[in-house]
Amino acid sequence: MKTKLLLIGFITCLTTGFVLLDEQKEILLWPKGAPGSEGKTGIEKIRIAETGDHVVSNIHNPSITPYIPSPEKATGAAIIIAPGGGHRELWIDHEGYNVARFLSEKGVAAFVLKYRLSKEENSTYTIDSHELGDMKRAIRVVKNRAKEWGIDTARVGVMGFSAGGEVAALSAMRFDKGNPSATDIIDRENSRPAFQVLVYPGGSDRFEVAKNSPPLFLLGGYGDRADIAEGLAKVYIKYKQAGIPAELHIYSGAGHGFGLRQNNSGAVAGWPQRLTEWLGDSGFLKR
């Protein structure tokens, strides 16, 4: 009996070990502390919503969680994903991890971004400084480690949902060439995304077409609030008039926050496939 128990325990340890090896580990964007977060020591908060989603807040150490495709599937493309949550929290499952798993299965390296939150109670952060800064830093980190992950630095894009869509869009407007003389080698990388995917983004009235804006994939629901459902069409027209490739999908049976869930139904459930088709048509999935 004792031998049997030891054997069960050994098998359990092995199984647990495999599970742990399979877990994705976060990578801090600033291992020594993020600029603007000095002195903030509060731990991250996670609540479980009625839908079962994990909702994260109180973020002071921004990070990315990598989902790297297997070598036989890898295309060399990469996407940094910013979940939404009204700049107060992050709905990190259906607007983050679920999407990253799907993309990695399609050969796209995906990175779920935990960014600092400007509208959380008593927050000292801002969208344009800290949230955008976190996204730009994430782009630089991925490009800096591109060789390690089998990524083509010319095919690193951004993706955002709701408030995260605003952050992603801003990164596609306010990119820079990096600082070649920076002591931190990551800061030497340019922060321009190769493409942008905006899913029911907030703040679309702020979106302008930069001189060298990357191509754009827009996605939303007819039943969303007017500034988003109508804002998407206005953003598409801006890009069309500027001669920058853009694709727009507005689903008549959808509202806000559908993300990627197993229980999505109807036409909107097929949006991830439309995205991969666009990435392929745009040349980002060439091996």
**What Rg is obtained from the alpha carbons, in whole angstroms?**
20 Å
Number of domains: 1
Report the principal-axis shape: globular
The secondary-structure element order is HEEEEEEHEHHEHEEHEH
CA distance, first residue to last residue: 54 Å
* Mean pLDDT across residues: 92
The count of β-strands is 11
Q: In which range does the helix fraction lie? A: 25-40%
| Structural class computed from helices and strand pairing | alpha/beta
Reported for the largest beta sheet, the result is: 8 strands, mixed
Report strand %. Answer: 15-25%
**Please, how many helices?**
7
**Assigned CATH superfamily:** Alpha/Beta hydrolase fold, catalytic domain
Strand order of the largest sheet: 1-4-7-5-8-9-10-11
In the CATH hierarchy, the architecture is 3-Layer(aba) Sandwich
CATH topology: Rossmann fold
What does this protein structure show overall?
The protein is of the alpha/beta class and 287 residues long. It has a single domain (24-281), classed as Rossmann fold (3-Layer(aba) Sandwich), CATH 3.40.50.1820. 32% of the residues lie in helices and 17% in strands. It contains seven helices and eleven strands. The strands form two sheets. The protein has an eight-stranded mixed β-sheet with strand order 1-4-7-5-8-9-10-11, with helices on both faces. Strands 2-3-6 form a three-stranded antiparallel β-sheet. β8, α5 (163-171) and β9 (196-199) form a beta-alpha-beta unit. α3 (127-144) crosses α5 (163-171). The longest helix has 21 residues, at 2-22. The N and C termini lie far apart (54 Å). The model is unreliable at 1-22 (pLDDT under 50).
